[in-house]
């Protein structure tokens, strides 16, 4: 495919000349006279290579090379440096530029260099699609968490990874069950084959059966063609069955058969299909309870639970909150082009005191919000959602929030928020004496800053 090249240079004559030389080679060329209009073009157009001058009316090309690489990692940047200024070129490469050429005396270098950069762009694209095929590419090296509790979990998962044993991952929502499933797959002998994930709660019973096992044409209305199921897609690889507690009983029986013999029958088929698939299942439900309630088959549970891994909730491993938050802040910052250097101590404490019902997923969302809102390179509590800074005091467990004094504290705070800090009005509404209110504000260290 024709590569598209953007030239950012304020010298119109030189820019035009360069554009013509490059166009003659069959490349498509766009031109910009300053950084701002160059970046605007990148926002709207798919560009492969940028040629960028160093001295521009609105900034420096060496820094711009870094900005472009951060925002658009697949683009290759070539810097046009002034004669005798190699230092700029070297710095640009440090910032992620592909290479540099000295203006004027290097005209014969430019075309071969563009071809080389074009090859690199193709490679970037191939790598990108490979990474996509591998899913979110979580290996054990990418899993963050140094706490003892978490490390024990990782050690267990690493031990089972190279075997072919089925694994049952248990943990609250957002604790990283899918991340672990991927890491186990990648560390196992099936890692060059597919990892297929299916969320059992996302489909109705009939649809889930046809998703998992496939169907023959005419099996039911709307089944116009034969359809391969996810078990077949995962042949020789791994299937991850998320929310297995939601699976209907008769499908559970079918799943047990696959686990035992690798065999199943497609919907509407008469013959057996055989696959070789490793099964990793996950749930946030208590399956033993489900068995008692008659909604989960005990034989399937025993088959699956031969190897159980409990992933601890985030609140049970507070030491991991800071490194996780730092890593998310950095990567989200890079994605949206903001440099985040760290988190304020108060910010970290607030995060550590939160209950994190949604675990790492919730933490990631909170950090994303902060990175978007922040105007500084250090994230501070001002960027946290209001309820998080308020929750600080009642943190611990959801139950502790129901202890009498916790309830009183929350209630007084709510009323104070309502009266925007007017204590006389708050005391009246609370039907308590003003002196008592002052004492309680002091005792519970209630927030007295009211915006607006
Ligand atoms: N240890 C970890 N290090 C870094 N990121 C993590 C880690 N664990 C989870 N995440 C991130 O947290 C989010 C939730 O993880 P995941 O989807 O694996 O959770 P889950 O337990 O499968 O959730 P659910 O029960 O809702 O399916 C994802 O964005 C994932 O990338």
UniProtKB/TrEMBL annotation:
Gene Ontology annotations of biological process type: phosphorelay signal transduction system; regulation of DNA-templated transcription
SUPFAM superfamilies attached to this UniProt entry: CheY-like, Homeodomain-like, P-loop containing nucleoside triphosphate hydrolases
InterPro entries on file: AAA+_ATPase (IPR003593), AAA_lid_NorR (IPR058031), CheY-like_superfamily (IPR011006), Homeodomain-like_sf (IPR009057), HTH_Fis (IPR002197), P-loop_NTPase (IPR027417), Sig_transdc_resp-reg_receiver (IPR001789), Sigma_54_int (IPR002078)
Keywords per UniProt: ATP-binding, Nucleotide-binding, Phosphoprotein, Transcription, Transcription regulation
Sigma-54 factor interaction domain sequence ranges: 143-372
Xref: CDD domains: AAA (cd00009), REC (cd00156)
GO molecular function terms noted in the UniProt entry: ATP binding; sequence-specific DNA binding
Pfam assignment, any one: HTH_8
Gene3D superfamilies hit by this protein: 1.10.8.60, 3.40.50.2300, Homeodomain-like (1.10.10.60), P-loop containing nucleotide triphosphate hydrolases (3.40.50.300)
Annotated Response regulatory domain residues: 4-118
Residues carrying 4-aspartylphosphate: 53
Domain of life: Bacteria
PANTHER family found in the cross-reference section: SIGMA L-DEPENDENT TRANSCRIPTIONAL REGULATOR YQIR-RELATED, TRANSCRIPTIONAL REGULATORY PROTEIN
Protein name, entry field: Regulatory protein AtoC
């Amino acid at each position: 495919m024709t590569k598209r090249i953007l030239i950012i240079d304020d010298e119109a004559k030189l820019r035009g000349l360069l554009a013509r030389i490059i166009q003659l080679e069959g490349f498509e060329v766009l031109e910009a006279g300053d950084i701002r209009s160059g970046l605007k073009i990148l926002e709207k157009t798919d560009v492969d290579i940028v040629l960028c001058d160093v001295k521009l009316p609105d900034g420096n090309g060496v820094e711009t090379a870094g900005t472009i690489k951060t925002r658009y990692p697949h683009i290759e940047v070539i810097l046009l440096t002034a004669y005798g200024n190699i230092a700029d070129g070297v710095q640009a490469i440090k910032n992620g530029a592909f290479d540099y050429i000295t203006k004027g005396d290097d005209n014969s270098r430019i075309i071969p260099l563009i071809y080389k950069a074009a090859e690199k762009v193709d490679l970037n694209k191939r790598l990108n699609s490979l990474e996509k095929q591998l899913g979110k590419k979580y290996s054990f090296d990418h899993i963050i968490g140094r706490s003892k509790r978490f490390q024990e979990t990782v050690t267990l998962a690493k031990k089972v990874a190279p075997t072919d044993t089925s694994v049952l991952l248990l943990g609250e929502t957002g604790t990283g069950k899918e991340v672990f499933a991927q890491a186990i797959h990648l560390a196992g002998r099936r890692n060059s084959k597919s990892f297929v994930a299916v969320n059992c709660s996302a489909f109705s019973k009939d649809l889930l059966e046809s998703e998992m096992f496939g169907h023959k044409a005419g099996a039911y209305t709307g089944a116009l063609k034969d359809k391969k199921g996810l078990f077949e897609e995962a042949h020789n690889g791994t299937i991850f069955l998320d929310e297995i507690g939601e699976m209907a009983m008769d499908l559970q029986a079918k799943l047990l058969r696959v686990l035992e013999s690798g065999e199943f029958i497609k919907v509407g088929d008469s013959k057996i299909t055989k696959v070789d698939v490793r099964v990793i299942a996950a749930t946030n439900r208590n399956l033993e309870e489900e068995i008692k309630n008659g909604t989960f088959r005990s034989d399937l549970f025993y088959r699956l639970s031969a190897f159980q891994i409990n992933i601890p909730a985030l609140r049970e491993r507070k030491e991991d909150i800071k490194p996780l938050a730092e890593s998310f802040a950095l990567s989200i910052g890079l994605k949206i082009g903001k440099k985040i250097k760290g988190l304020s101590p108060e910010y970290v404490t607030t995060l550590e005191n939160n209950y994190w019902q949604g675990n790492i997923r919730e933490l990631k969302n909170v950090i994303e919000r902060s990175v978007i809102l922040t105007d500084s390179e250090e994230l501070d509590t001002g960027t946290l959602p209001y309820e998080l800074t308020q929750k600080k005091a009642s943190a611990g467990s959801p139950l502790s929030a129901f202890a009498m004094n916790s309830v009183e504290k929350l209630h007084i705070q709510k009323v104070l928020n309502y009266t925007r800090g007017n204590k006389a009005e708050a005391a009246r509404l609370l039907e308590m004496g003003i002196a008592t209110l002052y004492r309680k504000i002091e005792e519970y260290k209630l927030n007295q800053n009211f915006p607006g």
